[in-house]
Amino acid sequence: MKLSLLSLLIGSAAAFAPSPSARTSIATNAAIDDLKSIAEKSNPVLKFYDPLELSTTTIWGNTNDATIAFLRHSEIKHGRVAMAAFVGYIVQSNGIHFPWPIALDGTPFPYAAGSPPEQWDALSPAARWQIILFIGFLEWYSEAAGTHYMRGGVPGAYPRFTDGGIIPHPVPLNLFDPFGFSKNKSAESKANGLIKELNNGRLAMIGILGFISEQRVEGSVPLLKGIVSHYDGETMAPFA
């Protein structure tokens, strides 16, 4: 959540503005040029904008290039999560759900509990842990497999399950592009797809935060007043 808000505040996690600061010399020209290019394509009006001077800073003792890669990867990942959350919120709000149990203990989907946050509250602890641990596995695998995005890898690229090496048994499909629809696309097509994904992810972050904000504080998002129901629970405490 905090990283999502940070991404929104800087306007472009992949696009930072140049600063007259002496720290600019830390970043390579290639990294800055890449940021400028992505920024201008994703937002031709705002372009290269960095009020927090993140393009020239470092975190956790890493290089400037690694820091930029971390911020770019963070925005892409949070955008993907937000897109899934936004679509999932709408689907669940309309009573659409899987017909089979969602936990090993046979827990059915609690679609009748109300809004998506209330549906989460209605899940058994076992079902919640099952979801959280699966997401934790995906996060662990993204950090442990392949070339790390802060060490020369590509920000936003999720390691392939089918490459093997870490998982001790075969996995027939990958998380990203499981059916191989995009593997033969040109580099230009993939670059355009990244720009679309960035913009859709940014909008989705605003959208899902808008849903949750209006549910917790009625009237905070005027356009959603009366559309989403009030929620008395605690969105930041998954086991409350």
From TrEMBL:
Domain of life assignment: Eukaryota
Endpoints of the signal sequence: 1-15
Localization annotation: Plastid, Chloroplast
GO annotation, cellular component aspect: chloroplast; light-harvesting complex
InterPro entries listed in its UniProt record: Chloro_AB-bd_pln (IPR001344), Chloroa_b-bind (IPR022796)
Annotated residues for binding of chlorophyll b: 80
Keywords: Chlorophyll, Chloroplast, Chromophore, Light-harvesting polypeptide, Photosynthesis, Plastid, Signal
Binding site for chlorophyll a: 55, 75, 78, 196-197, 200, 202
GO biological process annotation, one example: photosynthesis
Function comment: The light-harvesting complex (LHC) functions as a light receptor, it captures and delivers excitation energy to photosystems with which it is closely associated. Energy is transferred from the carotenoid and chlorophyll C (or B) to chlorophyll A and the photosynthetic reaction centers where it is used to synthesize ATP and reducing power.
Descriptive protein name: Chlorophyll a-b binding protein, chloroplastic
